[in-house]
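Quick one before lunch.
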Amino acid sequence: MLNGKRILLGVTGGIAAYKSPLLVREFVKAGAEVQVVMTRSAAQFVTPLALATVSKREVVSEMFPRPDDPNSTSWTKHIDLGMWADIMLVAPATAHTLARIAHGFADDMLTSLALALRCPLALAPAMDVDMFLNKTTQQNIDILKESGCFVIDPEEGELASGLVGPGRLPEIDRLVAFVDGILEKIHRDLSGKSILVTAGPTQEPIDPVRYIGNRSSGKMGFAIANAAALRGAEVTLVSGPVYLRTPRSVRRIDVSTAEEMNTAVHLEFENVDAVIMSAAVADYTVANPVNKKIKRETMPGDELTLTLKKNPDILKSLGEKKQNRVLVGFALETDDGIKNAKEKLRRKNLDLIVLNNPNEPGAGFNSDTNVVTFLTPAGQAEHLPLMSKFDVANRILDRVKSTLTWLT
Ligand code: C5P
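Model of the cytidine-5'-monophosphate complex:
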């Protein structure tokens, strides 16, 4: 995958930076073009000259052009390079740079680039064991993972300080395989396509403080939105209430009730090529929610009866006006899965239904993995093995892409 690819290699100021010329050499040997971006402190461990020599390109570090350099007149290099690259890898990534990227700092070329990128951002944290295990660093890594960055865990072993534990930069061949694996998953094959994704639960109010909801975490839908954006699609994510960060380059619309989701989805529908409804939309809402908190002392008797009414079936109404758009639905079934999913596929006029069972090991709410079966109007059921939600997302997008190609 590396042949002909453009790699931005960010090098930050940790001892493992001394390995970066070897990494550049391996990328170049595999046919990639490499542009090195260094932080100021990285130059304490490895010289810009060494990196410029192996990459055959001037190393960039500062944001602003130097007055004495006639070639460095552009101050939009961070934008230009952000558009140039197929992937950016920061290796080694120090605790400081992880923190800066996680919180959106843009105080040098490397962090500005990380913000301006249109391609995947991969990170290889490497530092001393206590800095790595520090709660703040771990929280920053979680933030970065949630917002769609790829993170390779450091290896365990003896560190420069003499301490032993996780923190070593992985060997060069593992870093090369890591980048290769990301590029294999992420071709920009959906650029020019517009995809609407729904995610999360809905909340149907009973009174101003209570609601009827469900256990959906939104992780599956957010993984789809992230994967689609990384593959170049323009992504709108309509999300119910969740505790997840918006993936990079995704436009997010927050809603609360099924009715609000219905309105938002129908407004967006005209402008999209595909809709992937992974939201767990409540089938029923409270018929007459009250605007004052219900108090048990003032209610007569021992029972409280709520009257529920059916919510609109959003996906079914999209199916009725879909024309040449691709429609994907989810079916969460605990029994008779295939039969029920086939029936839903037909009733909602879908191109694909993704069947999952929350009781299966590795599947279900809040898990980072899923076990799904694909069903199409024509095809056989395809059972996928246990895989990450990100990988499931890419398999769904492969199906969306082939249906879109077939439709046009
Ligand atoms: O019929 P069922 O609710 O099981 O169908 C699930 C699929 O339909 C999911 O893709 C879900 O997002 C969608 N759905 C919907 N509107 C509803 C209920 C479910 O669009 N009111």
